[in-house]
Amino acid sequence: MLKNIIKKNFGIIIEDPRIGGPHKQLIYLINSITKDDLKNFQITLFLPKTLNKYIKNKMVKVVNHKIIYLTKNKVLSYMINFFKDINFLSKLYNKYDIDNLYIAGGSQSIKSIISGIISKKKIIWHIHDTNCSKIIKIIFNFLSIFVDKILFVSEKSKKYYLPNKSNVKAIKMRPSIDLNYFKIREKKKFNNKILNIGVIANINPDKDIVTLIKVANLLKNEKIFINVYGNVWNSQRKYFQFCVELIKKYSVNNIKFHFNVKDIKKCYLETDILLCTSKNESLPMVVCEAMAMGLPIFSTDVGDIKKFVNKKNNLAGMIFEPGDSNKISKQIIKISNERYRLKKYSLNSIFLSKRYFNIVEYKKNLLNILYAK
After folding, report:
1. N or C end of the chain: which has fewer CB within 10 A?
2. What is the pLDDT of residues 200-213, one digit of tens each?
3. Which CATH architecture has domain 195-356?
């Protein structure tokens, strides 16, 4: 006689309504889930309404929330609504009979964690970054005592939050993408006359747009153009204005910002090299996507990027010290005169993306972690 299978109900929550790496990772995961995956469990997503349009999988329940997320320009509102939001989330978890709770949004998902603890849920907390304020880090170290598993996007992220610690709760889960969507049907073609550098990033100091502008300044007499695709959130408007003034100061005319981009795949198709000038990263989703699209990667040595780009027998690009605008610009000029290297990097990028960034393997590992608890 067959035993009845008890279906578990996984609750997955993201607090931040602004689209970023953690959101994209969750979207790829959810949209890859099949009917077979849901034989032994069901999934309920608790999301800001802004993310609804990205969820294409109709087999997953979506419940919207309006809790206030912690940002620089909403600290007061965040604190005023702190206990109200926690109470709301606790009731939400119980209303939908959640067994295990997956906090997908990173270290600042404090309300999600506390409400999960109060509701006595088993909690898996996913950390994506390598930089936060001291107070957030202190709160993380305290709240992590009460969670069951902590997933880290990279080894650098794990070391940042748990330095010199061997923690049985910690599991490394590198980002992965839909390789059926992010792929090119033929070999990547490069323009022989101009070089298009692509930067996929929301504007903030961690992305070090200042260094990017300095690179652009050193390249402005070349046939090399930089396109920045991303958004400027309200909390970063002062920083962006500072960057605009810097562009005027240097009379830079070869950098262009593109906001509210709807088709990111088209951006990759129009790009010859993906450039990342960040000061702090874990392992950006854009690097995974760009490699799958056959792009060479020129990046600062942040997070775990070097492990996947700087492979001894499969170089997919070049790695630089953060802030080194001189070396970055020199190597870009050099490779613009050695286009054959771009083709080699491109083929290696595709090969490495298939080996390391497959969402099917990611999904299998993550669902096993969720179901095991």
Report:
1. N
2. 999 999 999 999 99
3. 3-Layer(aba) Sandwich (3.40)
